[in-house]
Write a structure and sequence with these properties.
GO terms for molecular function: acyltransferase activity, transferring groups other than amino-acyl groups. Keywords: Acyltransferase, Transferase. InterPro entries: Acyl_CoA_acyltransferase, GNAT_dom. Strands 1, 2, 3, 4, 5, 6, 7 and 8 form an 8-stranded mixed β-sheet that branches. The protein has one domain: Gcn5-related N-acetyltransferase (GNAT) (Aminopeptidase, 3-Layer(aba) Sandwich). By secondary structure, it is α+β, with helices and mostly antiparallel strands. The two termini are 20 Å apart. The chain contains 4 helices and 8 strands.
């Protein structure tokens, strides 16, 4: 069993990766941003698991998103069909260019569960518009008292600053250690090159 050294280095077993996770939250803002984009936002009711996985990969493969890829069709369908969960898709010229998922299971503490764009949509102002839409959806419910999100060092290096620019504040940090999904074939070996794959040595 590996013991975490809180004052130095800790070697990870073969096949494992570690990321630093930062949790951020916000209370009700004084004013919501109003931004526009060429895209439109569409609510995705009861997504088909296969179609959802394809979009999830398109958005998250560069950033080591893999948790939803581990679920069976039934488990994923049940999760996405929860009445307290909303999946929204930004569309540009009819094509899906991202995903926005809000979890209202705790009606006072709403989670921005997934947020991202496909590679070709980044840098066009769609991300800031999509976040403005996320805030509008979350805060349109009178029950909402807090909105929270987490990001990690596997994510885009711009993510933390992006969230903070909208008023999210860091409040907690954690270390997540998982099996490298690229070694298990869940993601391709070339995914997320900023987190190098370390092949076990003989």
């Amino acid at each position: 069993m590996t013991i975490l050294n809180l004052d130095g280095y800790t070697d990870l077993p073969d096949g494992k990766i570690a990321v630093i996770v930062t949790f951020l939250d916000m209370e009700r803002p004084a004013a919501l941003p109003s931004l526009s984009a060429a895209a439109i936002l569409e609510r995705w009711h009861a997504p088909d698991p296969e179609a959802y996985r394809a979009l999830y990969r398109s958005v998250g493969e560069d950033w080591l998103w893999f948790s939803r890829l581990l679920l069976s069709d039934r488990a994923l369908g049940d999760l996405l069909g929860e009445p307290t969960r909303q999946v929204h898709v930004p569309r540009l010229n009819g094509a899906a260019v991202g995903v926005l998922e809000l979890d209202f299971q705790d009606e006072e503490n709403v989670e921005l569960a997934f947020f991202g764009l496909v590679r070709d949509a980044i840098g066009k102002g769609i991300g800031r518009w999509l976040m403005a839409e996320a805030l509008r959806l979350a805060w349109s419910r009178p029950q909402t008292r807090r909105l929270w999100v987490h990001t990690c060092t596997g994510d885009s290096p711009a993510a933390l600053g992006f969230y903070r620019s909208f008023g999210f504040r860091p409040y907690r940090r954690a270390i997540e250690v998982v099996d490298d999904p690229r070694l298990a074939g869940i993601l391709p070996k070339g995914a997320a090159p900023h987190v190098p794959v370390i092949e076990p040595r003989d």
